[in-house]
User: Which sequence fits this backbone?
């Protein structure tokens, strides 16, 4: 999209649903909130580390002014001077209000550490800023926060208020660590003080239910890409996102390995470690079928509603997950969602007596800790392959049992 004043005037201050970040040129980009707040952001490297800094907001800072500011900053960087240094020492850019603290946290921490930052930003703008956004951050007391969470509990529910507490508590802790706040008044509050704690639902399938799930996935009324994604999630015991973001280059069919880069899995951003899984024959066949859907695309699971060489949208598997759960419950089996496949696989591997370290490596957990973690980088690939092959055979056996029971008894569940 070409950036012009006319285009920005059309966006600013109006509901916006496009890309949250738009590159301009030479490290300069625009961040646009769902409410049409337009912010100039500059990226540069300093001492080998990536830096992102807010320059100003449009229309107060026009395109030419943003370019001039960018050039000024880059000149300082070229001389070995970090442009942020003097400003921070003078306190000019220190966030004073709750809104400013939230902005600073989003731009300097959240956007780097959490791929779901637009949704979190939207939550904060909807639930925090309207109540206390203009207040000085250091002047708000615990009682004020309790009042805020009470209002949000009445507006959106008890579980929402609790989630909001823990999200905002982390922001205030960030402000304390960076010297913007003297203390975090929320540290002594618990979720039960402001709302209701969510109780995790732990569902797992047993025996013939695993075969029923495999058949249900195969008969889902969705694109083959979605069915292949869910089948492989069941085989590997991986998170859906690990497959959704995968590129074809991550799969080595000579070595029979799938490498999940650190940036593509939940713990990778913290540990910097990749996940390496062996590829059993059944998964290899599904992957090769998937490649044939869009042979020239970079991503293994590209968007298919409007065909693009981009990973499936994070929300795309949600509706198939609901349909899958409905199909299972209609047959009298355990309601099953996407993440339940991961728990089901891990519990089945335990029942099949797979070695614990091998199972934990397959699921993507860290198995070497302390001194071992420093010296060992062993993925148990041969052991993984043996276990995955046995797991695939088990899935097929349970599928045959389910189909036989279905022929004999219809859709009713048969308890053995």
Assistant:
């Amino acid at each position: 999209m070409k950036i012009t004043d006319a285009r920005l005037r059309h966006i600013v201050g109006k509901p916006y649903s496009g890309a949250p970040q738009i590159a301009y040129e030479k490290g300069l980009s625009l961040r646009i909130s769902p409410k049409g707040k337009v912010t100039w952001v500059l990226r540069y490297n300093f001492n080998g580390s990536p830096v992102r800094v807010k320059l100003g907001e449009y229309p107060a800072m026009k395109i030419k002014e943003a370019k001039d500011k960018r050039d000024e900053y880059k000149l300082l960087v070229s001389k070995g001077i970090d442009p942020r240094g003097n400003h921070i020492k003078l306190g000019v850019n220190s966030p004073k209000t709750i809104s400013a603290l939230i902005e600073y946290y989003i731009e300097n921490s959240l956007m780097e550490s959490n791929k779901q930052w637009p949704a979190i930003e939207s939550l904060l703008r909807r639930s925090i800023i309207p109540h206390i956004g203009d207040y000085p951050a250091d002047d708000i007391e615990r009682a004020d926060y309790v009042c805020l969470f009470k209002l949000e509990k009445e507006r959106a529910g008890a579980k929402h208020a609790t989630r909001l507490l823990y999200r905002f508590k982390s922001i205030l802790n960030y402000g304390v660590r960076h010297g913007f706040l003297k203390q975090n008044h929320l540290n002594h509050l618990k979720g039960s003080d402001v709302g209701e704690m969510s109780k995790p639902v732990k569902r797992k399938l047993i025996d013939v239910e695993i075969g029923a799930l495999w058949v249900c996935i195969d008969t889902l009324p969705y694109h083959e890409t979605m069915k292949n994604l869910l089948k492989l999630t069941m085989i590997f015991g991986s998170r859906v996102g690990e497959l959704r973001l995968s590129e074809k280059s991550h799969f080595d069919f000579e070595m029979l390995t799938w490498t999940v880069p650190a940036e593509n899995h939940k713990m990778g951003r913290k540990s910097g470690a990749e996940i390496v899984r062996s590829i059993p024959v059944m998964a290899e066949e599904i992957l090769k079928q998937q490649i044939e859907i869009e042979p020239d695309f970079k991503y293994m699971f590209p968007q298919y509603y409007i065909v693009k060489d981009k990973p499936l949208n994070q929300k795309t598997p949600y509706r198939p997950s609901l349909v899958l759960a409905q199909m299972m419950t209609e047959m009298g089996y355990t309601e099953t969602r996407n993440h339940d496949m991961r728990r089901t696989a891990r519990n089945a591997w335990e029942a099949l007596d797979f070695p614990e370290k091998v199972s934990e490596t397959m699921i993507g957990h860290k198995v070497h800790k302390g001194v071992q973690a420093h010296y060992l980088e062993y993925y148990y690939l041969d052991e993984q392959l043996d276990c995955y092959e046995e797991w695939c055979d088990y899935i097929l056996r349970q599928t045959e049992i389910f189909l036989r029971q279905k022929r004999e008894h219809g859709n009713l569940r048969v308890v053995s």
About this structure: The first helix runs from residue 5 to 11.
